[in-house]
Write a structure and sequence with these properties.
The chain is α+β, with helices and mostly antiparallel strands. The chain has 3 domains: 13-169, no CATH class; 184-283, no CATH class; 298-469, Orthogonal Bundle (Hypothetical protein af1432). Helices cover 42% and strands 11% of the residues. It has a 4-stranded antiparallel sheet with strand order 1-2-3-4, with no helix packed on it. α4 packs parallel to α6 and α5 packs antiparallel against α6 (155-165). The protein is elongated.
Length: 472
Amino acid sequence: MRHIRTNHNPLTVSDILLENGTARLEDFYPLTKVKTASDKKKLLSQGYNPGYTVSEWPYALPVNKIYYSKHLIPSTYYYDPDNEAIPIALCLNIYGTERIPIIPDSDQFCEYILDFAASLQNPDKDKIFSYLYNQDDGIRSQLLAEYIRRSSPSPELFDLFQMLYTVTDYNAGEYGTDLLQKLAFCRSDAQIQKIHNALADYPEELIVYRGEAEGSTNYRKAISWSLDINTAFFFACRHGDQNHARIIRARIHKQDVIAVNLDSREKEIIAVPGVPIKVTVERLIGPDSSLLMPFHHLDEYRKSVEQIRRLYKLYQRSGTDHGQLHSARVLFLALAIIQSGKIKLSPMERTQLLTAIVFHDIGRADDGVDDGHGKASRQIYETRVGKSLDPAVSFLIEYHCLDDKLAEEYLKSTDTIRAKKRTRLLYQILKDADALDRVRFGIYDLDVNQLRLPISHKLVPLAVTAVTGIKI
C-alpha cells in the first residue's frame, strides 16, 4: 500500500521523509495538456508546480517530452517512456519558472539534455548505473524494473539490480514475481555460490522478519526480508503512524533466496513474493491502541511525575539522556506494560515499582557509562525515606542497571525480601521500560531480543512516540 496524503491535511515530518523518496512515473503530467492559466492553477492544487503552459514553454526541448512531476519538491522532467532500452526520465531542475542553472546557458543546457537522452538509446552498464543511481528512489525502482523487463538475462543484469537495490528505500513492490524469477535465472554459478557461502552458517530453513507500517509494501507482495528482528522493528517504526506498525515473521528455504546483503546492518534476504512460509503477523501497540485507551493509570502517572520533578530540582540533576524526561518516559512505559500486558499488581507492588522508577537515575552524575549509579540512587532513596525504606525498592533501584544474573543471585541470597517472585516481576517491568526508552538514541539502540516480558516488544512504537510526546 502506497502512502497517500490529502491536500487538506498539514504536511507532517513523516510525510516529508516518506514523500521525499516516492515520486512515481504515472503521476507525470504532460505539458501538452497545460493550455491555460486555469490548467496551471488546477495542477498546482494537486501537488504539481507548473511554471508554463504549452505556448509559454521557453526552452529548445520538444514540448511533447516535457512533463510536470508530482512530488514533495515538484520539478519538470524530460520524459520519453518509449525509448527502447529504458524509459528516459531526466529531471530538468526547473521548479515553476525557476531553473537551477547547473549549466547557465539555456542553449547549452538543452543540448546537454538531448545528448544525454540520445546516450540512453544504446547504453552500456556504467551509463545505466549512473543514470539510475541519480534518480529519486521511487522513479529509480520503476525504471530499473522496466530495464530488467526489457533486457536479456545476464549476470551483469543481476549485478546491476543488486547494486541499485541496496541504495533504494522505496517502491520495492515494483519487482514482482516475474522479474525476480528472471533475476534468479540471470545468476551465474559463481553468483549462486556466493549466496550459498554467505548463508553457510545458517540452517536450511531461515527465520526471517519484516517490519511494516501504514505506507509499506504488504508482505504478500514484498521481496525483502531480514534475518535480524531489530531491522524489522526499525522499518515498522521509522516513519508514519505508529498505530499501524506490525512485525511479520516467516521462514524461507535457502534454495529460494534470490539475493542477500548480509554485510549491512539490515541482514537482507530477497525472495520471490509468496515464497515465505509459516507466516505470522503481529500487530504492535501504538498510542491509540485499545489496550491503552483509556489510560487507567493517569493519576499514578501524574503523582509520580511530580515526585520526579521535585526530586531532580532538589538534587540539581540536569542530565539530558538520563534526566527527568527519561524517568518520566520510563514511568509511562512501565505503566503501559502493566496495562497492555494485563499484569495484576497489588497497590503495594505498584507503589514499590513507581518509587523505584522515580529514584532509579537520580544518583547519576552525568550521562556517561556508569554501572554504579544504581547504588548511588539507592543511597539517595534510603536517605530520603529513612527507616521507612522498602528492601524491594532498594533492590530495584540498585540493580536496574546491572546484569540480570547479578540481580538473580542477590534475590536468591537475600533474606530481606520475602516476595522474591513478585519482586523479580517488578524488576523485569522496570528493566524493560528503561530499555524501551533506548529508542531515544535511535531504534537500533534497542535490542528487542533483550526484553524480558513478551508484551514489552509490542510497545516499541509507543516508546518511539513517547520520545517526543512525553513532556513535563
